[in-house]
Amino acid sequence: MALVLGICSSHDASACAFRDGELVAAISEERLSRIKTDGNRLPGRAIDAVLAMAGAKRSDVDHVAMTYNHVPERYCRRTTLRKEVERRLSRAAKKLTGRRKETQYFLNEVLRHIRDVAPDRQFDDYFRRGLFLEGEGFRPETQIHFVDHHLTHAASAAFYSGFGEAAVVTLDGEGDLGMHHTSSVYADGRLRCLHLSDAPGTSSGFFYMDVTELLGFRPLRHEGKVLGLAAFGDPRPLHDAFKRALRLSADGNGFDSDFTGLERAIDKRKAYIAEAIRGHSRENVAAAAQAVFEETIVGLVRNFMRATGQKRLAVNGGVFANVKLNQRIAALPEVDALFVFPGMSDTGNSVGAALMALDRLEPGYVARAAHALRDVYLGPGYSNEEIRAELERRGVQYERLDDDALVERTAQAIHRGVVVGWFQGRMEFGPRALGNRSMIARATDANINRILNDRLDRTEFMPFAPSVLAEYADELFDDVGPGRHAAEFMTITYDVKKHWHDRVPAVVHVDGTARPQLVRKDRNPLYWRVIDRYRQLSGIPLVLNTSFNVHEEPIVCQPREAAQALVDNRIDALAIGNFWADYQPGKG
After folding, report:
1. How many alpha carbons lie under 13 Å from residue 273 in its C-beta half-sphere?
2. Domains of the chain (ranges plus CATH)?
3. pLDDT, mean of residues 519-529
4. What are the phi and psi torsion angles at 170 (to 5°)?
5. Is 452 a residue whose pLDDT tops 50?
6. Predicted structure pTM score
7. Do 335 and 329 form a contact (C-beta atoms < 8 A)?
8. What would the mean pLDDT of 497-518 be, rounded to a whole number?
9. Which residues pair with 420 in a beta bridge?
């Protein structure tokens, strides 16, 4: 089968590669550029990286699958667009691209123009395919496939759920043509969309983003802080006010607000929220926002599951980065099993785009090839020789250990209270560190949160997450069943059984929940062995796991970034490949 390159050039840009119908590589641009949520342009570094991991180069690509996001302006014809659309494009491009040398053209505006102004026109009247292929180093015969934003979300959720038949719900801030929600049924490898929402001023994603910004955080980055803060507040003082800004539509299949149908509805709703929260504590604002957000979306899902008779649910889109929401959904009696695609932000859209291109090329591909996602270790890995060279370049003293000795050294260190940088194998795809680019420590010390936040320059309201031996999940958490597969990717919270609260305080939130990664021996055997050896020493079948990065930096990708963390005393020790290094003041 052909070599298919998937590209998403949205705010969290990424690329992936499928060879012979199998996903062999995927990476976000931020991991290579070292710019957090890097995007709104073609992810050039990610494109070259996934192709290199696939043993290919740009001239080998047979098909490019893309979303309608940002491309360099030279690949588009703007003269045919009416002047007001041109002005809107220029303003948006300047805002999105900042100081970048070339203006990026937002292809979604072409879709708007065709829909609203020139329905007789075709997309290719505006997009210069040949020039794009030549300019980006692809062959002239390489085919380009454009795929709708929410369809990419739905495709990856359905394909990797392992469900032969399921309900599929996608939710985010905004996709193509203003769409921010779809509810579909997946069966026989096909998605049938039954409901969608695109009315301005009703997006659940924008609602949460606006609250994030109005609380002084950065939208599209710090929504997790709002989630953590919500557990400290009382939702009642602002609950009714927020219901005016987000609620279910009258038929229960979409969203509504008091601002639907108004001109500049998005701006007016945000202004309303800003006025409503005046004089209220940040904790109560966050609590009310989370409560209304949960109630509305849970109601939407419940109605859809009842109407379709489906018992399994696959979800995707940035809204489902909200792990407490996912817990509420999994607890519904209508839901027997829940799958959350791990790349739930726009970064996962490269995968969905490639899947849809493959299905177009080979009808029935999805029905035949769909399977439960095994892991997301799809990024670059590094040999011991490459790692050794970087350690020596930085002047870091190290020992080389075999796997057994590395496991023992790491487990013993964690048991003593050491914070270990764990850098192994191929990097994870998606926002979570899942045991290949993680910082790990014991969860028995309630002060570790403050200590780590100080060392990593973080200000977090959530506790750190635990990596848990999958065999012990039911011993630690309530009602694991429906979200068990999702929990392998740290996309859902659970209530921690009360007798564990005091034993692992560093990973239990004030509301009694935790966001675990269930670690399976057959998925990540070396990481599983470390946790199991620590269990033998401590009686605790989990370790604290936080992403291997400093605040506002992407998760480390390459050995040089891991070595720098040791030199900067962000960690006490580094287990990287088959090497062990301790922090050495004055070295580096």
Report:
1. 30
2. 3-147+350-369 (3.30.420.40), 151-341 (3.30.420.40), 384-582 (3.90.870.20)
3. 98
4. -120, 140
5. yes
6. 0.95
7. yes
8. 97
9. 440, 573
More reliable by pLDDT, 499 or 456: 499
Name residue 418's amino acid.
V
- Residues 6+ away with beta carbon under 8 Å from 302: 332, 334
Give the separation between CA 395 and CA 128, rounded to whole angstroms.
50
Determine the angle formed by the axes of helices 223-230 and 204-214, rounding to 10 degrees.
80
Distances (CA, A) of 259 to 109, 182, 245: 23, 20, 7
Query: Residue 359 and residue 18: Cα distance in Å, rounded?
Result: 12
Compute the residue count for the chain.
588
Decide: 469 and 545 in contact? Cβ < 8 Å: no
Report the DSSP beta bridge partners of residue 302: none
Per-residue pLDDT averaged across 502-529, rounded? 97
Of 30, 111, 102, 101, nearest in space to 66 by CA: 111
Q: Could you count the other beta carbons within 10 Å of the beta carbon of residue 403?
A: 12
What mean pLDDT do residues 254-266 have?
96
DSSP 103: P
**Are the C-beta atoms of 179 and 67 separated by less than 8 Å?**
no
What CA–CA distances, in Å, run from 534 to 143, 413, 415, 469, 475? 51, 9, 7, 11, 17
Neighbours of 418 (CB within 10 A): 18
Give residue 458's pLDDT band: very low, low, confident or very high (50, 70, 90). confident
CA angle 315–367–363, rounded 5-degree value = 115
Task: List the structure tokens of 402.
Answer: 């075999």
Contact 50, 27 (CB under 8 A): yes
Confidence of residue 480 (pLDDT cuts 50, 70, 90): very high
CA 185/CA 158 separation, integer angstroms: 9
Cβ contact 368:417 at 8 Å: no
Stretch 346-375: mean pLDDT, rounded? 96
Question: Which residues 6+ apart lie within 8 Å of 587 measured at CB?
Answer: 394, 395, 396, 397, 567
DSSP, collapsed to helix, strand or coil, labels residue 478 as coil
